[in-house]
Amino acid sequence: MPRLDGTGPMGQGPMTGRGMGPCAFCARCPYFKKPLTKKDELEAIEDEEKMLKQELEAVQKEKQDLKAQK
After folding, report:
1. Domain spans of the chain?
2. For the chain, how big is the Rg over CA atoms in Å?
3. DSSP character for 14?
4. Could you tell me if 28 and 41 are in contact, meaning their C-beta atoms sit under 8 angstroms apart?
5. Alpha-carbon span 1 to 30, nearest angstrom
6. I want to staple 12 with a disulfide (CB 3.0 to 4.6 A). Which of 16, 36, 42, 56 is the partner?
């Protein structure tokens, strides 16, 4: 979130970017106000893992597409 103003990339609003900002995984964010239970923390980590796998798949697909264009 550029400028940390909640507007997202290019002012498009929150949740419009790649989810790579400092509060991308808010359950682990230092500014998260509610204390986490072990279950909440585990769910947050699993969500983070899922998002990272999806991001990796997207990068790998883009890489394959670029190689195919040669």
Report:
1. 20-68
2. 16
3. T
4. yes
5. 16
6. 16
Mean pLDDT score across all residues of the chain: 75
Interval 32-38 mean pLDDT: 69
The answer for residues whose C-beta is within 8 angstroms of residue 53's C-beta and 6 or more apart is none
Query: Are the beta carbons of 33 and 39 closer than 8 angstroms?
Result: no
The label of the residue with tokens 């609003």 reads 13
CA-CA distance, 13 to 8, in Å (whole number)? 5
Tokens for 36? 């986490």
Q: What is the reported pLDDT for 15? A: 60
Cα separation, 42 vs 10, in Å, equals 32
**Least confident stretch, 4-8, 31-35, 46-50, 53-57:** 31-35
